[in-house]
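note to self: dont lose this again. the chain is below, predicted strucutre after it. 583 aa total, dont forget to put it in the shared folder this time
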Amino acid sequence: MTRLWNQRALIVVGFLITVAAVSAAVWRYGYLQALDQLAQRGQADLDLASDRLTGQLQGFQEIAVLLADHPVLQALAIGRETAAAKAMLLAAADKTAALDILFVSPAGQVVASAHDATLQDVSQNAAFARAMHGAMGIDHGVKPPFDQRTFVFGAPSFAVGGGVIGVLMVAVDVDRLEDDWRGSNPAVFFTDRSGEVFISNRSELLFWTRPKGEAGLVPAAGRSPPFSSSFTGPHEVWQLGWGPYLPARALHLVKQLPVIGMTGEVLVDVAPARRLAGLQASAVAALCLAFGAMLFLATERRRTLAQANAVLESRVAKRTAALQDANVSLRREVSERRQAEAALQRAQADLVQAGKLSALGQMSAGLSHELNQPLMAIRSFAENGAQFLARGETQVAAANMGRISDLAERMARIIKNLRAFARQETRELTRVDIVAVIDTALELTAVRLRDDAVQVQWVPPSGPVWVHAGEVRLAQVMVNLITNAADAMEATQDRALTITLNTGDRISVDVADTGPGISAPEKIFDPFYSTKEVGAAEGMGLGLSISYGLVQSFDGNIRGANRPEGGAVFTVELDRWEGEKAA
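---
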């Protein structure tokens, strides 16, 4: 009898060890699968944060390129118009939220500054040194005269003969860049080539450094907190003791950002992955134990039935009761297994939904381009409205407030388009007043046209003209055509922009300028084709290509040609609204 019990104990122990091994294997497999999903989501978050930082910094870089060859700075380089240069630099710094804008002589001396920088010699600055070689320079750090974290861009200012006569340096306040995303999840930080954390949404990690040839980070001063690194499959997992706002275990992902000389890194909490793997392993263990219990009970039943054949009939009722108790236990175990499976399915559904929300966050990054022009117009109207109120011109200020309301409504429609896109739907074309669209485009570009002394010739009809299009996208096309015309006329003395509305079978709009014309008409709508110099603002060559695609989505047509009297003309053809055709 003792030998029989020993055999049964060995079988039970062996079965439990097997279940434990299978559960461990399932846990590791589920953990690796969950880490793969976390890695995809974390990489998307890192890409979004990296693109946002790079885009913000490149905006200041473009400002440096734009202002480097300003006529006022050209005059400043030869010792004239110092006051005008300082006023221009101060206005540019106020409008762009730059920390400071400096114009530096070839000797490294600060000639003019937006905020009266006290440092007079910047010849040792890396951005200045590179700009003096005719290339775009970039530097960062905590350096005088700002004594705070800054990015500095240096753009060379060229003389007519081609030599560098000075450097325009734009300083960017890194603290201001971090304000919008400080404390958000997950933890993201950016290290420079020396391994120092220079930008992060966790302020406690700033200025931590990475020991050469090692993983992890150590603080600039003080005792190093607990840290260890290991690999789970292809994934690097850090075990941290860096404070309450950082996960205890985190998936570490890296992205190189050569454009700004940084490396983006993200720490994603792996606790959800461990919980999901634990649920999967528990479910498998419950199934195995339930199956083993069933086998064990079946074996016991057969043995009990064999013994029952040799015992008295009186014991049959007792053994039947024992079997009934065993069935109740089995039902309870099956119920527990079903509950565990339901919990596992809910956890998997939560992970899938989290992946969808992360994808929506990536798609929303492209919204900034379409919202930029209404936002700038709102800012301009708000500033002008404040000035008119200060002068007591309440009617003009009220008109500005009305324009701000219209622009806010337009931005709401843009956001509605993004929601429709997120649902994989397309916006239907609607009835659009092209006269109002042209007026809006001229209104948005009025400051640019006025600053460039462009004479606008536009005589709108007495009433609306309805076309088949999308209002926001059609306004984008008209703004692109007007700004391209202004760019083309920068080097000409006679600057005239003529807009003509033709109301035939199809509605057509002609946008004509007095610039140098189109050198290659067959290429103007090709992506990345541009006649602007390398490094020039808005010289990516995508404006006309985007306009072409928008007009095609309206079932319209756009073409460009040279005018016999000089300059270029772009024609946009659109269908009339069906109600207008019937009328």
